[in-house]
Design a protein that fits this description.
The complex is a heterodimer of chains A (437) and B (263).
Chain A (H helix, E strand, L loop, with lengths): L1 H59 E10 L16 H11 L6 H8 L6 H11 L7 E7 L2 H7 L17 H12 L3 E5 L1 H5 L12 H32 L4 H14 L3 H14 L1 E3 L2 E3 L8 H25 L3 H9 L4 H29 L3 H5 L20 H10 L4 H32 L3
Antiparallel strand pairs in A: 1-2, 1-3, 4-5
Helix pairs in contact in A: 1-16, 8-11, 8-13, 8-15, 9-11, 10-11, 11-13, 12-13, 13-16, 15-16
Chain B lengths: L13 E12 L2 E12 L3 E5 L6 H8 L9 E9 L2 E2 L7 H7 E4 L10 H12 L5 H14 L3 H4 L12 H13 L5 E5 L7 H14 L4 E5 L3 H7 L2 E6 L2 E7 H6 L4 H7 L5
Parallel strand pairs in B: 3-8, 3-9, 6-7, 7-8
Antiparallel strand pairs in B: 1-2, 1-4, 4-5, 9-10
Classes of the chains: A mainly alpha (437), B alpha/beta (263).
């Protein structure tokens, strides 16, 4: 018996050891798969950020040419400083920087070293500094986008034959010469952060889209949060659980899955055009391309997200809290607003901000209501024509000029910064509310 | 059912009178025609095996079942001679008069002071801040918690121990000056020491309040109650003085339960 049991025991032990080893191996395998997934995700994130930041960085600075500007003219007075055409003044200044250029063609080339928007920039500066009138000032004017790209080494191969380049030999010579003389300076690209859209890459800025996004999201926030949270509270705490509320619930969940462009169609059909019912028009009358229209459409799109997140947050409040409040005679409204809602607040805020972040990155529905239009002026109100950051990115990505490539990357970077900031606010708010025990 | 003049007989006056109470969850009948008189300023224990409907019945007395959509109550429940399911009865006022303490301690995630002050505040019982402080102090003293928490009233009620939390819930119920306190297995989540403290408290509270307690513990029913009702499968099998039920049960089912053969 003992002879028999000993080998049996060891074989049992061995079998168990094998099983254990197998189990540990499976565990390790799973750990490595998980680790690999996380690492590859991190790698792609790094590549993404690297590309965007790498492309965006050149757009943050711009090369300016120091030009002596003669602001002495019988035409220039304090009254018309803001309306005068400064092109001639700029032209004369450039001729002075690079003297001795003869011939119409060469002079034209020389003039085009400086951005065509330089005269407008100068006008803004002079009207802000009327004391300059009647003096000679050294003013930094933005170079043209090709000159700037050349200086940033983004032109591609400059040893190619001249006919294959946008930047000719003589232009290269002038720019190199000016750079050596210290007349070209790389400065912070304030134009990019203060201007609206433009066909000239060097004059195009993100500010119009930032303001547009801000106005649009304000409308979205004001509309979707009260309505969404209110609907969630009603459905969760007050509505009877019957077929009708079940039907509404299913439809809210369905709406959350509806492609955003459909909401754009709704905006176009209902808010802009209106539904014609004989002599009567339902809806319509919203301004085209405006923040109020875009914000309303995005609010409709965000509502299901806000409702679903808020309902989940309200549902997760333990029923014992409701019972406790009701048990000492609180009414349903008191129990909800005094006890349930404060506890659900972190979840509601998180859901709301996720919804808002989604709205911030949304392009498709806005294309349909005309927010893709080329808008140069910074919107100053909810009814002004506006565009938003993602649409601006979409438009710039479509432009052929190399100068817009960096603009696109820089705009993406700014959009990402906004998203990160919003998420940070979400986390901060959540912690703040959770600290109330 | 009970004329108010019967209240003059001190301890034996009927506070709550229930007759032919049926409770339905959708189509399922959870309580099948219960008749029970609960005496004033006494502890009445509802005992019985799990799922026999004693908690459901308890929740009928302050209409907490109203919160459950599919729940339907028929029959007659009168508190101080007033039918509490009558249309003119305000459920908010009813629950202020018939307080409740739950199975699991459920203090609000607010300060100890706020936990007790919330009820008086929504019912407008305190006319000034000093008044409120007095109500909170009195309630906590009656719940036997004052000495332990008087220096940390601003700290969260959820930070107390389980037994302290349950006494805080009792203080919260007392603060709105009810005449009846319903307790749904108040000690089931507590350790033996905390349980004995709460039991002592229940014994003290009986001087001022009518108490109905649902309990799983036969010993607890024997220790704290004067009257006992034994529930089985949605019906009351036997009701009477606790001593009588525990020493001389009339129904064989009661005897089996008490001696541990069913349950």
């Amino acid at each position: 018996m003992t002879d028999m049991s000993t080998p049996t025991k060891t074989s049992v032990d061995e079998a168990r050891k094998k099983r254990t080893a197998k189990r540990y191996a499976a565990e390790k395998r799973f750990e490595y798969i998980g680790l690999a997934a996380v690492l590859s995700a991190a790698l792609f994130l790094v590549i993404l950020l690297w590309t965007i930041v790498g492309n965006a960085l050149p757009a943050l600075t711009y090369n300016y040419l120091k030009v002596p500007i003669e602001l002495v003219s019988e035409k220039l007075t304090a009254e018309n400083a803001a309306t005068l055409d400064y092109r001639k003044i700029v032209r004369n200044g450039i001729y002075e920087v690079v003297p001795g250029v003869k011939g119409r063609k060469d002079r034209k080339k020389l003039r085009s070293l400086v951005s065509s928007g330089a005269a407008i920039e100068l006008r803004t500066e002079v009207s802000e500094n009327p004391q300059w009138i009647g003096t000679k000032q050294e003013i930094y004017l933005p170079l043209s986008d090709t000159a700037d790209l050349y200086l940033k080494n983004l032109m591609g191969d400059v040893t190619r034959p001249e006919s294959e380049r946008k930047f000719s030999d003589i232009e290269i010579k002038w720019v190199d010469q000016l750079k050596e003389q210290g007349k070209i300076e790389s400065r912070f690209n304030s134009i990019f952060f203060t201007h609206g859209a433009s066909r000239e890459p060097e004059m195009a800025g993100i500010w119009g889209a930032v303001v547009g996004s801000f106005l649009t999201l304000s409308v979205t926030l004001v509309l979707s949060v009260p309505v969404g949270v209110g609907a969630a509270i009603y459905l969760e705490e007050f509505a009877p659980k019957n077929k009708l509320t079940g039907f509404i619930e299913i439809n809210i969940n369905n709406l959350a899955a509806v492609p955003s462009i459909v909401f754009g169609l709704l905006g176009l059909g209902f808010f802009l055009n209106g539904v014609h019912l004989g002599w009567f028009t339902l809806g319509g009358g919203f301004p085209r391309s405006a923040a109020i229209t875009g914000g309303t459409v995005l609010a409709l799109m965000t509502l299901p997200t806000v409702i679903i997140a808020s309902r989940a947050a309200i549902k997760s409040v333990p029923p014992s809290i409701r019972e406790a409040a009701m048990g000492i005679g609180a009414s349903q409204v008191q129990a909800t607003f005094h006890h349930v809602l404060p506890l659900a607040m972190p979840g509601i805020l998180t859901g709301t901000i996720i919804g808002m972040a989604g709205a911030l990155g949304e392009t498709a529905p806005l294309l349909l209501i005309g927010m893709v239009a080329f808008i140069v002026d910074i919107p100053s109100g909810f009814t002004d024509p506006a565009t938003v950051l993602p649409v601006q990115i979409f438009m710039w990505a479509d432009f052929p000029e190399i100068g817009f490539q960096q603009k696109t990357a820089a705009a993406i970077l700014i959009l990402l910064c906004f998203l990160v900031a919003m998420n940070a606010i979400a986390v901060w708010l959540r912690n703040k509310f959770e600290r109330r025990w | 059912m009970n004329a108010p003049e019967t209240k003059s007989v001190e301890t034996s006056a009927t506070k709550i009178a229930c007759s032919d109470v049926h409770v339905f969850y959708a189509d399922k009948e959870a309580i099948k025609g219960v008749d029970l008189d609960i005496k004033e300023k006494q502890v009445t224990a509802l005992i019985g095996p799990s799922g026999c409907g004693k908690s459901t019945f308890l929740r009928c007395i302050n209409r907490m079942n109203d919160m459950i959509d599919i729940c339907r109550v028929t029959g007659n429940i009168e508190v101080d001679g007033q039918d509490i399911y009558a249309p003119e009865v305000n459920v908010v006022d009813l629950r202020a008069d018939v307080g409740m303490v739950f199975q699991k301690p459920n203090p609000f995630p607010k300060s100890i002071f706020e936990n007790v002050a919330y009820g008086p505040r929504i019912h407008g019982l305190a006319s000034s801040k000093a008044d409120m402080i007095e109500i909170v102090e009195r309630s906590l003293k009656r719940a036997g918690l004052w000495e332990e928490v008087k220096d940390r009233l601003d700290q969260p009620g959820t930070g107390l121990s389980g037994g302290q939390q349950q006494r805080l819930c009792i203080a919260r119920a007392i603060a709105v000056s009810p005449s009846v306190i319903l307790m749904d297995e108040p000690c089931s989540a507590l350790d033996p020491i905390a349980t004995s403290i709460v039991e002592e408290l229940i014994d003290e509270l009986r001087q001022n309040y009518t108490i109905v307690i649902v309990t799983h513990s036969m010993q607890q029913a024997a220790r704290v109650s004067q009257d006992t009702a034994f529930f089985h499968l949605g019906e009351i099998v036997e009701t009477g003085a606790t001593e009588e039920i525990f020493t001389n049960p009339k129904d064989p089912r009661t005897e089996s339960y008490i001696t541990g053969r069913i349950g």
